[in-house]
Specification:
The structure holds two protein chains of two kinds. By secondary structure, chain A is mostly helical. Helix content of chain A is 71%, strand content 0%. In chain B, strands 6-7-8-3-9-10 form a six-stranded mixed beta sheet, sandwiched between helices. Classes of the chains: A mainly alpha, B alpha/beta. Chain B: Pfam families: ABC_tran, oligo_HPY.
Chain lengths: 275, 542
Amino acid sequence: MRLSTIPISAWIGMAGIALSVICALFAPLLAPYGESQIVGAIWQPMGGEHLLGTDNLGRDLFSRLIFGARTTIFVALAATILSFSLGMLLSFTAAVTGGFVDQVFSRFNDLMMAIPTLIFALVVLAVLPQQLWILILVMAVLDSTRVYRIGRAVALDVAVMEFVEAARLRGEGTGWIIFREILPNTLSPLLAEFGLRFAFSILFLSTLSFLGLGIQPPAADWGGMVKDNKDGIIFGISAALIPGGAIAGLAICVNLVVDWLMKRTSSLKGGRGDG
Amino acid sequence: MASLLSVKNLKIEATSYPPGEPPRTVTLVEGVSFDVEKGKVLGLIGESGAGKSTIGLTSLAYGRGGVRITGGEVLLDGEDILKLSPAGIRKVRGCKVCYVAQSAAAAFNPAHRLGEQVIEASLKHGIMSRAEAEKRAVHLFGVLGLPNPETFGQRYPHQVSGGQLQRAMTAMALCPNPELIVFDEPTTALDVTTQIDVLAAIKHAIEETHTAALYITHDLAVVAQITDDILVLRHGKMVEYGPVKQIIEAPREDYTRALVNVRGTKREEAADQSGALLRVENVTAGYGMLRVLQDVSLHLPKGQTLAVVGESGSGKSTLARVITGLLPPQEGRITFDGKPLPKALKGRSNDELRRIQMIYQMADTAMNPRQTVRDIIGRPLTFYYGLRGEKKTARVKELLEQIEMGGRFADRYPAELSGGQKQRVAIARALAASPELILCDEPTSALDPLVAEGILNLLHKLQEETQVSYVFITHDIAIVRAIADSVAVMHRGRLVRFGPKSKVLSPPFDDYTDLLLKSVPEMEIGWLERVLETRRMESAGN
């Protein structure tokens, strides 16, 4: 693969993601103030000493945005990766094994999907202790039902192909069939789904934080920051829009990269084709 | 007589978009000229990619997605239809010129009754009233030999068989009383026994209605039965153009000669057919209550070829699935090299699996599109023999040499190979396991005749080198003649006839084998009439 074949949109996406990741990794070094340090009056305008102004408690918005990248990206990414691992493993096993296993997995999945995600999450999170790993796990399990659906559909399409039958006739195990025969041929739709799910994860986390069940204060996260500053909108203060914009920006960047990856993997020449 | 359709110096181009490179213009057809007189039939023949269909469609002034007609003239009744306005072309299509597609099943709208679709064009163009059109449709159904012509039009496409659907499509094309019909491989997707009926119906209908026709096919034997002239095409250029008699009996060009002689290969059967590597005993198999195979028994000696013939749905492929263990038989048993084979795939050891390999009809779907040739051929080497690194590379190269392709193909993906090359790689994959039996499920039926012959020769060469046995599933008697030692004829899940080739293919025949053998088109003018005549005499005698 040559660097020149990567389209400009993918470069923009990668730059956006890189910026967010750098912010997340080096937050204490980059941020001019502490995460929950109160530095001035509430809702100060942009410019001057505080680049993006201050929030509803007088904390530096820019610093919190940088710290917020940390939790938001970590939780959303962890939840998405976990949900994909879980969903794809189960769905591929169901598609390859078929029969009873498929029925049990699929009907249980239907059962899970029948309950509205947000309500499910609210109930579970209200009962369980408020810890980060529980939050990630709940998000992952709920999201994995969607991944299971699409994973099973695409895997079934591939599982009936003759090259899979040829692998079975060779005596290959389920592991080889799933990871070497089916997975490479289902990567395009799943990658597209990954980009979408990651963006949804950020939004879902933001929703939960907004409702008070996500990241707990005083820790910063983008969704929570929107919630903290939402009242300012009434007074014409744009503080809530900045973390909102960050969420939108990151979601778009992820999808720009995924679009490019999808094109690459969907080329039948083994992904060496066009950019 | 003046020509009805006159094509002069036709040039057709398209733009291709190779990945990573600037788009470039490809010439699909160049310098093609021909004439069709009223009531005459011209056959367009050539391998896939020769531009047959593209040329056929230009007589409707139509180019499939991205195809541009850039030069030459297409004169219909003296008028250049390429210069017509879109409205003018609409008056030609479906009115003066009609089209019969290869796959009737895909060309009919499944949501409407056949009758409605057959008369649609005639009504749209205002050629006749509904009553007249319906009357004509019924008449045409009769001419084409469809059952119950009065009520046939009330059926939906899924309620009739493939052969009937193809005839209904011919009726649709004939209904507006066109001056020219373009037949695009109308019998290619049909069984031989059905093909002969459709061919006879088309020929009868063309004679009855005095319509001119362009008949596109890759099968010279078929085209010899139905056309007056033949135009042989290759790579978008004219190879030979002349009356059917001259093309078949005295071809001038080497390529035409190769096409005419393609079915000529015949092989003597092995004298000693005792002993059995594979023995299938009283096997009955099916899906649930549906019995697809009933009480089938056959055997195959080592180093020989057993051809299994029959039309689609006769249980040929199911037999292969039973032998591989994909479909465990409900009754009966299979012995391999003297030992009984476990019925189900799961019960077989890796060594038992290794000894029986399979080659599929569609090499496209039989190979993982995301693996290189090296991975595809190399996997059985690693899996069965634990070969890795340099040893594996060397063996892959050796196998590629054996299939006459060479090591430079090792890093290609299947999408970068031609149809014949793909099938060769599939053969190499089977060969990599050093099997004793290879099940070939119609490995040549998706290939052009000359390419198919190459594959057959390769299989034969490999058999001599490695003493591998073949179970060769096919519907083509010519292939059976070319490669088989013994033959099994299947019909509706039962074994009709089994034995050495010379015995199975010579009289006295049972009814089904007789029908099957007589339905295979021969490279001979007048064959169709002769067969139909014998049939008529037989039915009269009965």
